[in-house]
Amino acid sequence: MAKSPLKRPGVSSRKKQEEAKLTLTSMMDMFTIILVFLMKSYSTDVEVNVDATMANVLPVSVSEAKLEQDAEAIVQVTSSAILVKNKKVVSLNNFQVPKDLLDPANPFLITPLYDELNNLHEAAIRMEKAGAIVKGKPYKFKGILVIKGDKNMPSALLMKVMYTAGQAEFAKIYHTAVKEGG
Q1: Contact, 120 vs 27, CB < 8 A?
Q2: CA-to-CA distance for 166 and 172, rounded, in angstroms?
Q3: Would you kindly state where each structural domain of the chain is located, as residue ranges?
Q4: Strand 172-175 versus strand 106-110 pairing type
Q5: Distance between alpha carbon 78 and the CA centroid of its chain, in Å?
Q6: Are 111 and 101 in contact (CB under 8 A)?
Q7: More exposed terminus of the chain, fewer Cβ within 10 Å: N or C?
Q8: Pick from 82, 87, 93: which is nearest to 150 by CA?
Q9: Residue 127 and residue 145: Cα distance in Å, rounded?
Q10: Is 168 exposed, middle or buried (0-12, 13-18, 19+ CB in 10 A)?
Q11: What Rg do the C-alpha atoms of the chain give, in angstroms?
């Protein structure tokens, strides 16, 4: 006769079920993976989309040069407004900047435009100092700005926009144009 194992009263033969605990190491791994994914999917690039709208007729060019794709900002100038990243920052009246929006000490500086571009510059510098990775490389502010200006824009306004961008540390300024015959 085979011996049967002794059973204690009130104790089941199954193992006690323990609560599943998430260890700190596993949580750190999860957050690292999520962080890497978000940093990889985040892009600081500005899509350079050159479209001539009714309010903004681009000039014609025969140049074969390509637009810089790594622009930190796009400034669009129409007869009624100056936009930065499609956000209206200055209202114009037939390409004229109201005098109260110009810096009293320097009439070439458009104050609201400077404030907006300077905010973009400071945000880029913070990203650079934080060690942000963009397209697999450490982010570095390049100071690249694209101006989409109407072909009827006076050169005085263009100079003010360029001067203001320069004061906000945007040193490389590109102008958009429609290729002649295309």
Answers
A1: no
A2: 8
A3: 60-179
A4: unpaired
A5: 22
A6: yes
A7: N
A8: 82
A9: 18
A10: buried
A11: 29
Q: Give the strands of the sheet with 172-175, arranged side by side.
A: 87-91, 81-84, 73-77, 144-149, 172-175
Q: How far is CA 159 from CA 60, 92, 129, in A?
A: 19, 15, 31
Cα distance between residue 46 and residue 70, in whole Å: 7
Residue 169 · residue 114 · CB < 8 Å: no
Q: Which tokens go with 176?
A: 């958009």
pLDDT in tens, the chain (182 residues): 555 556 666 555 555 566 666 667 777 777 788 877 777 666 554 444 444 444 555 555 555 555 556 778 889 998 899 999 889 999 999 999 999 999 999 999 999 999 999 999 998 888 888 888 777 788 888 888 988 887 788 889 999 999 999 999 998 888 876 655 55
Sign, Cα dihedral of 28, 33, 34, 40:
positive
The one-character DSSP state at 11 is -
pTM flag (> 0.70): no
Q: Which of 145, 143, 148, 141 is nearest to 83 (CA)?
A: 148
Q: Is 131 helix (H, G, I), strand (E, B) or coil?
A: coil
* Phi, psi (rounded to 5 degrees) for 125: -65, -40
